[in-house]
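If you are new to this repository, start here. Below is one unmodified record pulled from the training split, so you can see the exact layout before writing a loader.
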Amino acid sequence: MPRAAQAQAPAPAAPAPAAPSGPFHLPKLGYAYNALEPHVDAMTMEIHYSRHHQAYVNGINAVAERWPEIAKIPIVETLQDLGKVPEKERTAVRNNLGGHWNHSFFWELMTPGGAKEPQDKLRSGIDAAFGDVAKMKQAVNAAAASRFGSGWGWLIVDKDGALRIVSTANQDTPFELGARAVVLGVDVWEHAYYLKYQNRRPDYLTAWWNVVNWDKAAENYAKAKG
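And here is the target side for that same chain:
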């Protein structure tokens, strides 16, 4: 006779990041690697967080060894004006500090099961700028899907206080495009989706909205609007 089925143990939370070997470190991931299934698979999450993001952290810590001043400057302030970074370190900072900030932001923008769709001020802002939430999603998806090679799609608040959709290459951030604040962003590097979706980037983008933390997006918008 078959054995009685055993209750499946709950998935463990993602392990705490290792102690940093420099001033920059991985943020704590607030959910288990498999918590975003089936939309974002566990293996992708583990590799993306513990290897790819860690590589950017290692890279910016290497910069800090050569240019210790970077650890004293707020991350966003550095990214808003890369011209103040020593020229010989500028590319490494754009790639690695950008990658660190982008990913730290990205993890917070996702939550198991997703959060309710935007309400109140963010909903009003989206409706005014795009017509409705569905049209905004379509516009973000179009910008992100059409990004050649690797990059990101973003919903930002621009310098005039308006919601706008932009796309950046590689690990460039929206701050280089004059963003006052970033409301949400989606990673379209292949490592963010290829294990599950292969070359079907649009399918990944459609699925990703199921795990968007709209409460966090609303918080980001509220801070920008004051």
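Two things worth knowing about this chain: Residues 127 and 135 are 9 Å apart (CA to CA). The chain has eight helices and three strands.
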